[in-house]
Design a protein that fits this description.
alpha/beta; 17-stranded parallel β-sheet; 9 helices; 19 strands; 17% helix
């Protein structure tokens, strides 16, 4: 109801015009807003956008449209924001639709083509004021060199599909947000990124680097002293010793190291990262000392621990001392919480491997130690001869949830593994990183 009221007031005051399914058709005299949003899903094929005066439009947002619905980009004169998103049936072959007029939109600040198969980006060197360029899941094989001339560009997203990373990425010195796909094919990236000293948000996927490049990457990250969000994903192994000399910026609040490591890096500690609120790490071994370190972060709200499914984690502590603000926790292994640990936990997500229990009964009484619990998600892995035990685990979880004071919601998924799959799962996790690249 509030959304309808807001949209109605925005339309009456000519702040923004929303065109979507079942809406009455507008004429050029009815649509006088400078901001136009067109939601094309379910709209008749020949929607009369041609009758709307685009010369005054400063912001145009199109979602789930095809070429027959779109106005010509040449009809815009003062456009500052252009988004053509999630247009999976967008046809650019032949004369269906042309992006060439983009090069003449000299006032453009924001260009978003997320999930739209454009395959090729026109020359953009004349768009001197462009600040945001979103090319995720567009199918563009490589960024045109004209992008390197956009000296005011603050945000570049090209992390989906197979967009190659150019060698000139370091010339975009005003970048504050950078999101890229696999940079392993760009040998100079690890050095070029050190020039982007204004970065606040860095997300990259790295499949492989040699030892020399790993050292260069760690050195470059040390130059990025304004980083607040850092995501390093992929199948790359970076051991604790290879992080030697790295000191993270104190304002770092979101850290994701989905790179492989045997142990938790020594620089992940509350004295270095007092503002850390979201942490995701992939390690082979987690000791009690590591959990003590993680529990000391005063602002940590979300924790993800990717470990072998045979690893069991025990969270312990006194009230208010361990994980004081933690709300959400995920681990690919098994876990338990003692009274006083993470008292504000709202959701838990963990795995149960029956083979790792070695015949022992599954204990889920720890849920009673989480008074704020609202959601429980569990994935149970079992062999074909452990179906009955998997059912027992599920029933134990249902009982624990039923007697909990908050009556949290429970989501249980069961996966049957063959004997070979169960014994070789840890090795398979490494190979599955190739599939993770596409998902990322």
């Amino acid at each position: 109801m509030m959304a309808d009221i807001i949209c109605s007031m925005a339309h009456e005051r000519h702040f923004v015009a929303l065109l979507y399914r079942n809406e009455q058709q507008h004429t050029s005299t009815e649509v006088r807003a400078r901001r136009l949003a067109f939601h094309g899903e379910g709209v008749e094929e020949h929607y009369p956008l041609a009758y709307i005066d685009m010369s005054i439009v400063r912001s145009f947002n199109a979602i789930r449209c095809d070429a027959t619905m779109m106005p010509s980009l040449a009809s815009f004169e003062v456009l500052r924001v252009l988004t053509i998103e999630d247009c999976s049936n967008f046809q650019l072959e032949g004369n269906a639709y042309s992006l060439e007029p983009i090069r003449k939109l000299l006032h453009l600040r924001y260009l978003g083509l997320w999930k739209t198969p454009v395959h090729e980006l026109p020359e953009v060197k004349n768009i001197k004021h462009l600040e945001v360029l979103d090319l995720r899941q567009t199918g563009i094989p490589e960024l045109p060199e004209s992008v390197s001339l956009l000296r005011r560009l603050k945000c570049l997203r090209a992390d989906g599909g197979s967009t190659r990373v150019p060698d000139w990425i370091g010339s975009l010195t005003c970048l504050e947000e950078l999101s890229l796909n696999d940079v392993s094919s760009c040998p100079n990236f690890v050095k070029e990124v050190s020039k982007l000293t204004e970065l606040r948000d860095l997300k990259v996927w790295i499949r492989w680097l040699d030892e020399r490049s790993k050292k260069a990457l760690v050195k470059s990250l040390g130059n990025l002293q304004k980083i607040q969000v850092l995501h390093l994903d992929g199948g790359l192994w970076i051991e604790d010793a290879e992080w030697e000399g790295y000191v993270p910026p104190r304002q770092l609040r979101c850290l994701s190291l989905r790179t492989k490591s045997s142990r938790l890096p020594r620089w992940i500690k509350d004295s270095f990262l007092p503002n850390l609120s979201h942490l995701s790490v992939d390690v082979r071994v987690v000791e009690a000392e590591d959990l003590t370190i993680l529990g000391s972060f005063p602002e940590l709200m979300t924790l993800e621990l990717f470990v072998p499914n045979t690893v069991s984690l025990l969270f312990e502590g006194h009230p208010g001392s361990a994980f004081p603000k933690l709300r959400h926790c995920y681990t690919s292994g098994m876990l338990r919480f003692l009274l006083g640990a993470a008292p504000r936990r709202e959701s838990v997500h963990f795995n149960v491997s029956l083979s790792a229990l070695n015949g022992a009964s599954f204990q889920c009484g720890f849920l009673g130690n989480l008074p704020w619990l609202m959601e429980v998600r569990v994935e149970i892995f079992h062999s074909d001869v452990e179906v009955y035990r998997a059912k027992e685990v599920e029933e134990a979880l249902m009982l624990a949830v039923a007697v909990h004071g908050n009556r949290p919601t429970l989501h249980v998924s069961k996966f049957e593994l063959s004997l070979n799959e169960d014994t070789e799962k840890e090795e398979d996790d490494i190979e599955l990183e190739e599939e993770d690249e596409e998902d990322w």
